[in-house]
Amino acid sequence: MSYLEVGITCPYCQMLTQPTIKHRSTIPLALDGVVREKGDCMLFTVAQCPNCANLLYFAVKGFYKKVRGRRGGETGGLNNQRLIYPSYMQLQLDHRVPPAFARAAKEAYTCLDISPTASALLSVRLLRRVLRTFFTKESSERNREERVTLSDDIDHFLIHYSGARILKRSLEKIREFGSLAALSNTGGLPEDLEVCREEARFIIEFIVNELFSFAFILPRKQQEMEAMLNRAARNYEFVE
């Protein structure tokens, strides 16, 4: 079965979808510079996501056999088509996330499938940056340098911030990733550091779906709502 039959998570909109085929081309592979009556071939497919209308490009190696009297021929072995463009998931972020933090999140997300360990290290750096920038109590500012590891920053958040139960639960889970939680500002990386994809994905998705919402999106939405109510109140007074 191919992605075009069972569906695929669109790299652009992250929706599970069944792409619509727009174009297909079968290219025979020459052997010693000669195209035989039968042999290997490459099938290229251009499909479109019905949700976001972006184009996806697939390729697969199969075999073909020319049929006399026909312009084309028979093909086979063309299952398991591989998405060749885009080659990684496109992370979509709310416009309220500051550009510097959005770039850092996209960088970590982009290399998730290439190197989960590298993705996790980038995510941890981003996580600590958000926690230290937006969730450090003024009374604890002088103790910032005493917080050496990610685990220290998580402890600070758990102690000083009430509510946000889902956020705290996720942070406690990340703290259980011992090899990452123990990374410090001063020490180098352990030579045997290796992070599985599940852990790396959990961290970056927590940042994008939960932490960014708590730190950036919800406060901005609240400000926008208050501004809208103030404008409505001023218009109401003017009408009266």
Summarize the structure.
With about 240 residues, the protein is an alpha+beta fold. Helices cover about 45% and strands about 20% of the residues. Helix 3 runs parallel beside helix 7 (about 195-240) and helix 5 (about 165-175) runs antiparallel to helix 7.
Features of this protein?
240 residues; alpha+beta; 2 domains; five-stranded antiparallel β-sheet; two-stranded antiparallel sheet; 7 helices; 43% helix; flat
Please count the beta strands (DSSP E, at least 2 residues each). 7
Shape: flat
Q: Tell me about the biggest sheet?
A: 5 strands, antiparallel
Which bin fits the share of residues in helices?
40-55%
> What number of domains?
2
Q: For the terminal residues, how far apart are their CA atoms?
A: 67 Å
State the order of secondary-structure elements, H for helix, E for strand. Answer: HEEEEEEEHHHHHH
Counted by DSSP, the helix tally is 7
Give a structural overview.
The structure is a single chain. By secondary structure, the protein is an alpha+beta fold. It has two domains: 3-85, no CATH class; 99-228, no CATH class. Helices cover 43% and strands 18% of the residues. The strands form two sheets. Strands 3, 4, 5, 6 and 7 form a five-stranded antiparallel sheet that branches. A two-stranded antiparallel ribbon has the order 1-2. A hairpin with a 6-residue loop joins strand 1 and strand 2 (16-17).
